[in-house]
Amino acid sequence: MKLLLHICCGPCTVGTMKAIHDESIEITGYWYNPNIHPYLEYKNRLDALIEFAKTISLPLVIENTYGLKQFVTMVKDDLENRCSKCYTDRLYSVAKKAKELGYDAFSTTLLVSPYQQHENIKKKAYEIGEEIGIDFYYVDPRPYFREGNKEARDQGLYMQKYCGCIFSEEERYLKKNTK
């Protein structure tokens, strides 16, 4: 099976690749993350992914779109549901690209993080796959999250401190200031 794997960052890729350990699956990474801000954060995450991909010979398809205006426009009217809109945007992108390039299925590293809305991501991915006409490959990589992060640190990969959007970074700082 040929799988196009949406990748949010290098560290999440480490854990996800451990979960997808089926030798019959040919994986290509797919970078599309217009939600990641500011620009230096976006660049650090992309550079870390490129370096990690080289170490495991993971081919990449990169949609190098720094999308500050696109992302803010998409979520500005409903910030409380921004994550759902963001998941939907990225899942549509990978599913459409997988179909366009002739892959058998798509998936995402977003599923590895215990901080993301796992069931929401999974449900949306199945719905989008059905709508577009391509299979969503589901695996639960959460058991590999800590191990993947440790390995990423050991390899010196850039480790982010928030999910990526500017609003999550704001929340991170607000939580720090209330402690």
Q: Overview of this structure, please?
A:
Helix 1 (10-19) links the parallel strand 1 and strand 2 (26-31). With 179 residues, the chain is of the alpha/beta class. It is built from 7 helices and 5 strands. The chain has helices at residues 10-19, 39-55, 68-75, 82-101, 118-132, 145-154, 166-178; strands at residues 2-7, 26-31, 60-62, 105-108, 135-136. The mean pLDDT is 93. 52% of the residues lie in helices and 12% in strands. It is globular. It has one domain: HUPs (Rossmann fold, 3-Layer(aba) Sandwich). A 5-stranded parallel β-sheet has the order 3-2-1-4-5, with helices on both faces.
* Helicity, as a percent range: 40-55%
Look at the structure and give the mean pLDDT: 93
CATH topology: Rossmann fold
The ordered string of helix (H) and strand (E) elements is EHEHEHHEHEHH
Derived from helix and strand composition plus strand pairing, the structural class reads alpha/beta
Largest sheet: 5 strands, parallel
Report the oligomer: single chain
- The Cα radius of gyration reads 15 Å
Shape: globular
* Cα distance spanning the termini: 48 Å
**How many structural domains are formed by the residues?**
1
CATH class: Alpha Beta
Number of strands: 5
